Amino acid sequence: MQLREHVLLAPYTTLGLGGRARYFIECGTEEQVRAALASAAERRLPVYVLGGGSNVVFLDSGFPGLVLHITIAGMELRDGPAPEVRAGAGVDWDTLVQGVVERGWSGVECLSGIPGTVGGTPIQNVGAYGQEIAETLVSVACLDRTTLERRTFTARDCAFGYRDSRFKRADRGRYVVLEVTLRLARDQRPRIRYPELQRAVAERGGLDTVAAGDAVRLVREAVLALRRRKSMVLDPADPNTRSAGSFFTNPVVPASAFADLEQRWQGIPSFPADGGVKVPAAWLVEQAGFPKGYRGGGGGGGGGSGISTRHALALVNLGGTSADLLALAEEVRAGVEKQFGIRLAYEPEVVSPSSPPPSRSR
Ligand code: NAP
User: Fold this and answer.
1) What is the pLDDT of residue 109?
2) Which residues contact 70 (CB under 8 A, 6 or more apart)?
């Protein structure tokens, strides 16, 4: 465990943006995380905990404290009637999915190709095509930043919601994820809920005539193909993937507000959701005048960034700065709000120089 100084953060992010961290340390074990946190607390340094860098925007000014890069490795796949996988927080998420799918176990196949590390997945209850981590998660082992003690949460404890969990709310910034355990299903055919994926699966011959294990593998292939088509699988050769994936979450609006919207915007797509109606953010962005391939350029000088040519929700670094990207994000957000009265929320975390202090609320 080596403390480094003035480390450029851009290479640690999928956006390729961000200035230097005053201090930077890689932690591959629980003990190392504890020691790094204790030392930062002693020196009163702000701390930012970094995983795969796929959902984060560092400012051009960098980070004035300690960036703690979690590299906890190790993955154990336990076969049985209800197989389980336990993986360190630093394990690449798609490596886990691949290992599970190769064994024909189901439960995470729709989450194929999502960038980032295992440790990041419970924070926002990562989901895709109607499947989310909350459905398979057994437990999350964490280190409490306020007490430096280990604490294990069950799925129920995590208070999962749509792209949401306790780790984003009351306990924001309080816990460092160390390890995640998932329970999969064997000999079970995946349930495909989204028409787009149903079509992609049908194009590959469908699931009806293949064994359950092969069905899981086929779904992974279909998901990867869909995501690649949208430039949502990391690929150094594809400039559209210098992004943080979806930059805005899909808003859920109250039913009454949606009724008003529907009157004004016929054909507005929608899906039922807890607490109201979910409206695809990509549709709002495009309708508000920001098509795929749009180049930033409004007031904030956002010309060094743009919207992916393959997906309206992905803001892409086109050789610019974080300031460019954030100017574009604000331009899009203001445009959508002006047109629809809906304020989009950012999905990635924009790291403020003071870093979120661990919450002490219980
Ligand atoms: P998409 O499949 O084009 O879907 C666009 C929007 O329509 C999303 O809000 C999606 O809801 C909703 N939707 C589509 N079909 C639906 C159905 N049958 N029932 C309910 N809602 C439906 O979205 P995309 O951007 O290409 O992304 C593909 C998948 O990856 C989506 O599920 C998306 O959420 C997921 N994704 C997740 C993350 C993350 O967890 N951080 C990041 C990027 C993409 P949902 O968003 O609820 O699926």
Assistant:
1) 98
2) 27, 33, 49, 50, 51, 89, 90, 117, 119, 176, 177
Mutate to test the pocket of ligand 1, among 126, 193, 227, 271 (most ligand atoms within 8 A of CB): 271
**With a 6 A CB cut-off, is 126 part of the ligand 1 pocket?**
yes
- The pLDDT tens digits for 44-88 are 999 999 999 999 999 999 999 999 999 999 999 999 999 999 999
Determine how β-strand 4-8 pairs with β-strand 20-27. antiparallel
Ligand 1 binding pocket includes 278 (Cβ within 6 Å): yes
163 is catalytic: yes
pLDDT at 357 over 60: no
Domains and CATH numbers, the chain: 4-70 (3.30.43.10), 75-229 (3.30.465.10), 248-346 (3.90.78.10)
Unique residue bearing structure tokens 């808003």 = 251
The pLDDT value given to residue 358: 61
Angle, CA 48 vertex, CA 91 and CA 19 arms, to 5°: 100
Cα(272) to ligand 1 centroid in Å equals: 13
What residue owns the CA closest to ligand 1's atom 30?
A: 128
